[in-house]
Structure formats: structure tokens, C-alpha cells
Amino acid sequence: MAGKDWQAGSKTSLATAVVCLIASVSPSARAATAGFQPSSYIGQLDPNLIWEVLIGSIVVASFLGAVAIWVVSALRRARRSQLRRNAFISTALNQLNQGVVMVDPRGRVIFCNDQYLNLYGLTRADVPRNMTGEELLEMRRTRGVLEGSDDEFYTRAATPEGLITELPDGRSVLVKYFALPNGGSVATHLDCTEQRKLSRKLSSTTQFLESVLDNVPVCVAAKNIEDGRYIFANRAFERFSRFSRDHIVGKCAEEIFSPATAEAIVRADEAALTAPEGYHRTEFQVERGPDLRTLASNRVVARNEKGEPEFLIALFDDVTDRRSLSRELENTKKFLELVVDNIPVALIVEAVKDGKYLLANRSAETILNRRREDATGLTATDIFNPREAKLIVARDEAAIKKRGLLAEEHPISTKDGLRLFLTRRMTVLDDAGEPQYLIKTHEDVTDRRQTESRMAHMAYHDGLTDLPNRAAFLQALAQMIEACSGTDEEFAVLCVDLDGLKEINDVFGHATGDKVLIEVARRLQHAARGGVVARLSGDEFGLIIDGKQPEAGRALAAQLAEALAREFSIDGKAVRTGVTTGISVFPHNGSDAAALLANAGAALFRAKQKSRGTINVFEPEMDQQIRDRRVLHQDLSVAIKNGELSLHYQPQAASGDAVGSSKIIGFEALARWMHPLRGFVSPADFIPIAEESGLIVEMGEWILREACREAASWPVPLQIAVNLSPAQFMHRDVVSAVHSILLETGLSPGRLELEITEGVLIEDFDRGLALLRRLKALGVRISMDDFGSGYSSLSYLQAFPFDKIKIDRAFVTNLGRNPQSANIVRAVIDLGHGLDMSIVAEGVETAEQLAFLASEGCDAVQGYLLGKPAPIGQYGALVGRDNAVEPARKTG
């Protein structure tokens, strides 16, 4: 309104000025002036002229004043208009849901709206006039609502994606920066917290849905209706079509499948598009390679919000096999019965409320002793005898009360007699969480337990003679000591050494020698009349005899000598042998099993020195053997320092039907000692001394280092096996030693195989197990050596995942002669493979043994048939070197 008044006033003033101007120059004005005659003249000027000038000046001044007033009014109006526009713009910008900051070309903040201040917790006072953009950013950085440098802020905010700023209170702000042509800039700040949450949720939902579709076992695909091209395919579709998703998406059926298959797919698509319900179910056949497959298809038309068809979803499954089965089965019930009936265990389902059997498979008929149809509707009390029924009902009630899995073994009477069953009971709850069904499975484990019993027997018995082994003999000896302690009873321990076995092996072969050992064991048991007889080592046996000592011991030793003096007829060959016996007496010659056996061994040693075939009783002054062992120990200590020890290598090969087809896969490193005076010293003599004295720790570390150094130099990367003694586990951190040697020699850990006996775990099971696990973590392979010769091998296989099991030579040497040995070896192979462990058989010396092991699936073999222990130079060709023989590397 003020603008309109000003405009009207200015128009009036301007009109007045124009009128005055016209009047000043009009004739009437001049006439009026002419009629006025002043009384006098001012100087020489004409009074009329003076009046004209005066009046004209007034008119001009009025005109100029009017113009000035108009200009001032116009400026005021423009300013008010500008203020109104500014107020309008400011109000509009303040109503935006995003913050806005404007900066002029000189970098000064000329505007920021309320939303910007609210986003960052600022007030108008915080943004004074003439504040620069950099000062505003610094203030935000100080208040903790901005991170990063100014350059990073402007660079990232100027991108089309903008900059996401995370505020301390968890909000997210999207900042976009725009440079203006005049040099200024505008920045927008949008609170995108909810959008980001929704975006993440949408992304998560999308990924979830894609994951679900990818894991659906049914083929799912989607395609555009316009051009029929695939826009999605899940993994099941990929597996069925045998094409990758990248190959499928973007193509139509004609570009992927054969013409016949593509035509069938197109027909199914058209049927779905024309179906009034918007979906179509059908079955059609497609070609997949050489096969013709039947697909059960469900096709659904997906529509947009306007109800217009947008894309087609196809779900299909390969029902070829299912249709084939359905033709053989009358209905689903028969199909389920077929599956249940083929479960290899007896399955019974009973109702919890009354204990009646609802379902039983054919396998259950064995324990039900009737047809399963006849058992339906009966209870355990109706089927089993009262004693068995009472036990079964009690165990059923315990399983129902536990509401979980309950497993136990118990005997059940069957038509084949009393059998041992492993029964598992599982309670099924209803929707309310109450027991509804009891599912019971019964697995006949009679044969398995018998096998395990045989395996346990193997742990305590010699594989060749089936006599108790050393561990069992020491156990029996300890029990005998415990029974006789505190009484005046005596008993004798006999160490019997078989004379001439080495000669028999050399002349007739180990096979004949093994048969001799079997016959010797039989005669020893007959002579001992039910007493304890054990095979302590290759040709050494142990016996325990009670009665008055040493008379009873001497008498038994004489009977043994007489029994074994008779010649043996082996494969038509007459073979003779004899025995030398050492005797120790409890309690005079020792109060523990180890001492008694050691003193009997000392007596045997003295008897051998005297003459083969003699009998000797231990006497306190009989310490020569001990002194000899001490001397041998001293010599061994010097030998280690002087480099008298060397390494020989025996090849290991993958099992083949013959030697020629058995590929060498590695070597076992074996220590050898050439004494300067004694000559060759058997490992059977110096290894036990080294273990007893602790020298095995130093010697074992040298063997490991030398074997790794040698193997690392082979051009062919074969395996190298090294024995670790229990003493090395007990006296030193064997893990650090192995690690250091691997680093020092550069041998790959995967090529090193450490062979251990159960002695590693006997002394300190937990510590030994922990060390084995640490060794396994280095990457080396762990092998159980002499499996079956100890008494806890099976439990150790359960406790630690060995890479390999080495069957003791005693079981292998009797193959082909003793069916029980073949069964034991076969059982060990099956056991190892069942535990994912490879099997190596030691002591393979005949082609028949090799063929048997290969036929039974034994993984590798080792023995004289494939190669004797020798310096590695003799196997240079196998490890990729020249055939020139290299000298054996010595210790020191």
C-alpha cells in the first residue's frame, strides 16, 4: 500500500511541475506579465524578464524536487521489495528439510538456514557476520561434528555422490557442495540417517532374499515379459543347466538351450501369460546333454502396482527320478516304508502316552521276533519276556524324562541267540513342548565289539605266536608280585632265549623261522601247563613259575629245554633249535617287575656267555652284564662325539601287486654304529642303552637334523621318516627342536614324518598329547610306529588324529600261514581307513605278503623285499641324483 501511495504522490508532483513549466512559457503568462507595469526598473533590467526568470526558476526547482522525491521513493520501494524477497527466500530456505550454506566469492558465509544450525547444534550467534567458510568448518571440527581436512571435505562433497558425515549422536548427514559461476558456492546438508538405515535394511533384505533363493533346492528364474530374457537365476538353476549365472542372465531360452528345450520353455511361458489365474503348473521334458529330464514347473506372472504384467517367475524341479520312483511305489506311504525299511538299523517309533508301537521297519523284526505289522499296536510288555520288558520300559521312561538322546548297549534275545545292541532313544516333543513320540534305533554291534575285543587282544598279545607280549607279561608279573608281597611265597621269572633262530632265518628264510617260533610257543605253553608264557622280543620268551625256588624254576627250564630239543618238521624240513635260560627269584632278586625281568635277563646274558643251552640263576655278584652295559654306554657317548654314528635309509613304497609296480614314496632314516673295536653294533643293542641313559636325546636330535638336511638336498621331494624316542619328549622341548631344524635345513614340514611309539603317551599322556598337537601344527606328519605291539594303541588312535599307522612287523611276517594274522592285518587296515589314516606295513619280505597287502588296500609297505637300509648313495637314482655312491655322513 505504501508503494501505491508513493506512486500516486509522485505522479501528482510530476503533473504539478509540468503544469508550472507550461504556464511559465505560455502567451497568457506573458500577457499577464505584460499587463503588469512595475513602478520602476531595477538597474537596466527589464522587470518582466526578472519575473519570468524568477517564475521559471521556481518551476525548474519544483520539477527537480519532484524528480528527486520520485527517485528517493523508487529506491525505498526497491529496497522494501528486496527486503521482502530476501525475507521470502530466507523463510523458504529455512523451511527446507536440509541445511543450506551460501558463501560469496570472497569466501564469506552470507547465509545458512535454521536446519543447518539444528543439524550441527549451532546457534545464530555461532555464525557471526563476515565469518568465512573455513572458519565455519574449523568451528564444526572443534565441536566434534566434522572429521578430516578441509580439502578432503570439499573434494568428497563436490562429487555427485556427496560426503557422508557421521555425527557423534549416531546421525548421518549427506553433504553436497556446488561451486557457483560467480566464484561463490552453495552446500546442502541432508539428514540421511533414516535413509541409510532403510538402505542398509533394504540391502540386507535383498542379500537375505538372494541368499534364500540361492539356497532353495528348487530352480528359480525370472525373465522379462517383453523380450523373454532372463534377469535372475539361482544356484540350483546353475547346477541344473550347467551354465553359470553370468551366462544365463541377459539371454533368452533360445540362446541357452537346445531348440526343442527352448520351444518347451517358451510354450510354458506363454501358457502362464495367458492363464487367467496368473500362474501355470505343468510338466515338460528338456534335454540336458545326452539325457532327457522331466521338469515340474510352476510359473507365476508378477505384476506392478498398476496390475500390469512386468516379469515372469519360473520355479521348476527335476522330477525325473521322483517320477521314476512314483511309478514303482503306489503312494507316499509305500515310499516312506521303503526308505525306513532300508535303514541299516532297527527303527521303532512308539507313542509316549501308552507305550504302543506305531512304526517298525523290517530290520526291527529281528529284535521283535515277529513281523512288524504284528508288532504295531503292541507294547514292550506284550512282546518281550518280563525281565527284558521291565528293563526296556525303565530305559524308555528315562529317555522320556531326559527329553534328549539316550544311548546304551544291552543284550537282546533274538532268533540267532543273545546279541548285543546299541540302542539310541530320542524323545520327540509336540507343539506344547510335551513328549509325544519316542524314536528308538537298535544297532547290532556284536560283531563290532568282537572285533574291538580282538584288537584289544592284539594290544596285549604277540601277532605271530598269539602269546602275551612284553607289556602283558610285565602286567602279569606286577600282579604276581602284589599277590605274593607280605607272604613267604616265592616264584621265579624265566627269560628263555631261542638258540639258532638267526641261522634258521639265514638258511631257510624268515618264513620258516616264523613257523619255528609258532611251534616253539606251542611247546612252551604245553610245558608250562597253563602258566604265564610271553614273547618278550624276537627270539626271547618269558615265563613265571611258582613253587619252591629256584628248584621249581630249574625244573621248568629243564623241561623247556627237553621240549625244544626235539626237532621241528617245517615244510618237510628238519629243523633243530635249543634254549638258553636265565632265572630270577622273587623276592630275593627284586621286588618289582622291572628288576625281576632285568635280573632274569642278566642271568640269561651270563648263561649265553657260558654256553648256549645252559640254565643260569641270577646271583648278586652277577654284575658283569651291568658293567658291560656301562662300558657300552660310555663307548656310545664317545661315538656320538667322535662321529662314529651314521644314517642308513630304507625305502618306503606305495603298495603294488609286485615290486616293480610299487612306487618309492619316501625313506626311513635309521641310525647305525660302527665301533672301532667291536665293529658293527646292532641298533637293538645300543638304542635301548641310549634311551635308558638319556643319550637318545642328543643322538635323536642329530639324527633328525641330518635326515632333514639330507632330504632337503634331494632333487625328488620324497618323504623322510624319523623315529622319535619317548625320552626326547620327556627331557626337552621337542617341538622347538623340530621347528629349529626345519628352519635350519630348509626342509618343507610336509615332507617330514615323525614316527612315535605309544611310549610317548604312556609316561605323561596329557603332556605327550599336547606336544603331538603342537608338532602337528608345524605341518609335519605324525605316524604311530609298531601299532599293535603295545596295549593302549586303540585308545591313542581315539585321542589323536595320526596321519599314518605302521603295522608291526610281527603281524606281517605271519601272513599266508596264520589266517588269524591276515584277519588282524585286515582289521587294522579297515580301522585306519575308517579313521582317515594311511597304513604302512613293516617287515615285507615276500612277494606273497606284498600282494596280500596291496589287495587289502594297504597304502604303503617297507621291508627287505623293496630294499634294505643302506647309505643314501645306493639310492641316488631314486632321489634324483647320479648313481655314484656317496659316503655316509657321520655324527660330530
Q: Which structural class should the secondary elements be placed in?
A: alpha+beta
Low-pLDDT runs of 5+ residues are 1-41, 884-892
**Averaged pLDDT:** 82
Tally of strands? 31
Envelope shape? elongated
Q: Approximately how much beta-strand content do the residues carry? A: 15-25%
Oligomerization state? single chain
Described by strand count, sense and barrel closure, the largest sheet is: 8 strands, mixed, barrel
Distance between the termini: 118 Å
Strand order across the largest sheet: 23-24-26-27-28-29-30-31
The share of residues in helices is 40-55%
- Output the radius of gyration: 52 Å
Distinct helical segment count? 34
Would you kindly provide a written description of the structure presented here, covering whatever features stand out?
By secondary structure, the protein is an alpha+beta fold. It has an eight-stranded mixed beta barrel, surrounded by five helices. The protein has a five-stranded antiparallel sheet with strand order 2-1-5-4-3, with helices on both faces. A five-stranded antiparallel sheet has the order 7-6-10-9-8. Helix 28 (734-745) runs parallel beside helix 30. The model is unreliable at 1-41 and 884-892 (pLDDT under 50).
